[in-house]
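User: Predict the structure for this protein chain, please.
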Amino acid sequence: MKTIGNAGSTARKLEAVASGALPNGQPVIVNADGTVSVVGGGNLTSENYIGLASNGYPDTATATIDVQGAINDRQSGLTAGQAYYVQTDGTLSETAGTPSVFAGTAVSATKMIVKG
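Assistant: Here is the predicted structure, written as structure tokens:
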């Protein structure tokens, strides 16, 4: 994994190899081997969510992930000012699931501040 940012700045994006396809804007977890995957199939824990895919990526591609503090503009149907949580099926909801994983806060219908 590699952080992306200018010298002296706080990086808000991360590059990592995708383990499976990553759809545009989907919640992403980091795997034990350092690759990243979409949330689904019971793989979400309270510690492994790292952010939202900044675009769509095929399996084994180097993917850019919007991480804490980044604004992901690949969403739809959000309510500005509302907190969203990652669900175990990879969707976002205004209600916390089990485990409770905070995804971020919507700033418009299409943009979310990741984990922020």
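The mean pLDDT is 93.
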